[in-house]
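thread: overnight batch results

M.L. [08:02]
morning all. the overnight job finished for the chain we discussed friday. pasting input first so we're all looking at the same thing
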Amino acid sequence: MGALAASPWTVWGIAAVATAGVIFRPFFWPEFIWAIAGALLLLVLGLLSPSEALTGVAKGTDVYLFLIGMMLLSELARQEGLFDWLAAKAAGHAKGSATRLFSLVFAVGTIVTVFLSNDATAVVLTPAVAAVVKAAKARSPLPYLFICAFIANAASFVLPISNPANLVIYGSHMPPLLKWLPTYALPSALSIAATYAVLRWSQRASLREPVATGIGVPALTVCGKLAGVGIAATAVVLLTCSAFSLQLGLPTFLAGLATMLLVLTRSEQGPLTVVTHVSWGVLPLVAGLFVLVEALEKTGVTDDLGAVLRGLEHWSANGAAWVSGVALAIGCNLVNNLPAGLVAGRVVEIARVSEHVRSAILIGVDLGPNLSVTGSLATILWLTALRREGLRVGAWAFLKLGVLVMPPALALAILGVFAFG
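M.L. [08:03]
and the structure it wrote out:
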């Protein structure tokens, strides 16, 4: 504890280098290696004790369980042909129009994000959209796949379950659903509309190209149907948990596990086939980030930020909302919104801010990550899904698009917070 107090800049330096490794992936090493390396370095240098590191890891238990459940559902749906069937259906409804296909994918992405969370959009929807554009013979698949990344964050505050970060910001003080909806309905609508308009405008050249028609729809097997039922049932479970302010991790894990067991009773695939295709590297990445946040909190940064936020609100409540929302939106792209959300949740608790300020902070944490590839866990999951499809999106290419898409959506969403007083 004394070492931490004496060396706060060392902790911040290690966290910054580890985050940079996650962002830029030197030597093309996976993201989780850099997060784990940063956490281990803190232990080796005595800046964090083993018990404190374990405390940090344990704080992510709900997130790990949530991700495991979602990844199991995604892999089952992929292996049993549900994505291929949905792809052919969607391509058929597009009727040869790239713009119609774009709008259809955007609508589906919005629904998945709202009812299954932004991480589910990255994990579950991305391979489905990849199958859609392949079936439709789209010359440029990226405009449709970009939707999965951007809508995952733009629609992630419609409901409490739409983003695990929402649960972090509010903690044990999560408002009931009937209070949440009036607060975030307009900001969410503005965020989604702005994201759609800018994304469609920016991709207009590619959307002039026709897509294939007359695509044959493969038969959906019994196992494919069971995987679809499992995903739908999971959405119902998450909504129910949200209504009763319950944590989402364990129910999602159990839903994914139950779906896997049900599907495998009828499938030719074995459990090892499913398990070996899951992107397990996401879990140590998240664990490493939680350890880094634990170390940062030991430096006293949350207390300092809480004092700053109190001072800002005393100066101007509206000003505090704008400054904190925009600052967090940018900050999430420097450290990822998972650790940023954890720190912000603690700062909000310390500062005891008004609902307007808290709402702006939540919007900054949820929507700000649309600026860069490492802004949110959902976008990192999206990149992982793209790699499995043999596609690559560089940090600079994403940033050039994010600079267009994120700022207007953020400004309109924060304005929406003040619309009803």
